[in-house]
Amino acid sequence: MDEQLHTHEHEHEHEHAHGHTHKHEHTEAVLHRISRAIGHLEAVRHMVEEGRDCSEVLIQLAAVRGSLGAVSRVILKDHMEHCIVDAVESNDTEAIEQLNRAIDQLLK
Description:
This protein is mainly alpha-helical. It has four helices and two strands, in the order H-E-E-H-H-H.
């Protein structure tokens, strides 16, 4: 999977409240992984519509959850390597508080 990240690298830039901008290197890879997860979830929906075995559906849902976890890790690492480093350098405590809130929501 990490090889995919490097083959689909694309920079995406955004600005934080305190005016510093960040370039995200893995935007294309993240979008690709999200699209794959959406497709997989659609397949699970069809399994349910077709009345497939509940155990099979649960296994496929676990796979979807795993791929969402993987894309979350990519986004989190990228955010920490760029946004949070810049936030610390510029004493932007709000960005760190936002990250803490996001992590709390992610890990619920």
